[in-house]
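Re: beginner question about structure tokens

> Can someone show what the tokenized structure looks like for a real chain? I only ever see the sequence side.

Sure, here's an example I had lying around. Input first:
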Amino acid sequence: MRSWARSLAIIAASLLASSLAAQGVDYTDYRHHTVHFPLGDRSFADEVVSYAMGHPDPKPESSRDPRAALGVPDYVDKTHSGFVSLGCGGTLVVRFTDNALVDVDGPDLWVFEVGPAVEPTDVAISRDGKEWIDVGKISGGTAGLDIARFVKPGDSFAYIRLTDRKTDCGGKWPGADIDAIGAIGSALHISLNASVLFDFNESTLKPGAKQALHDAANSIRSVLGASVRIEGHTDNVGTDAVNRKLSLARANAVRDYLQKVEGLKGTIETAGFAATRPVDTNATPEGREKNRRVEILVLPGR
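And the corresponding structure tokens:
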């Protein structure tokens, strides 16, 4: 089985295995501050992309593991792990893999920062991990950010970058101490490789697409009051006009199947972005294959 097909099977199994909590989940930090996340555990960062420890660096070895910032808030106290210290001027980049940060009413992104010191941190977001948008700073504790004035309607982001502002560089744990990073403005993210769904340069669904779309439909059904957006994407081979037409036609084909065959109700928005939103390089066959995809964003009702 090819790597992308194996990954798709794993993602589909994961989506089916864990239904989303219909009403979301409340998470309380160690200061007893509670934040409600409509997508529950899926709302939090899943993967460390990079960690550049600042100087001075944190002294305890237990506070140097960036993976401690993944998942739900679990900090108890500094005698235990559950957080990562950035060090003075340090940077942490994380990624959402099964959800995407989107703009909703009010704060969209929450960072759970621990410890008694107020250690301001710059926050940036990115679609691809290459081009970044600065969205402000947090100033210690559990803090929320509204990304509305920095983004366009329909934008979604997978990458978050935190950079310590070097305002408190003393003690054992210099720099911000990060427990968790979660998106309230969070959409369930399902990415389907175009070759699973379509023949090359075509927008008619292949017979083999049935199982992938059935799995996607079950995941959509698990989100209470969901609004759905389907996006088509291509590589950069061919003209922009042709690719825009193809990417929109593919998104529409997926929408029609989900509504007519799977029986999904409600309006499903579609868009075709051609090659304007790559997730990998277009310089290699492997990168181009990753860029040829259909993405489904499922936003829970609030």
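Each token stands for a local structural state, so reading them left to right follows the chain. The chain is about 20% helix and 30% strand.
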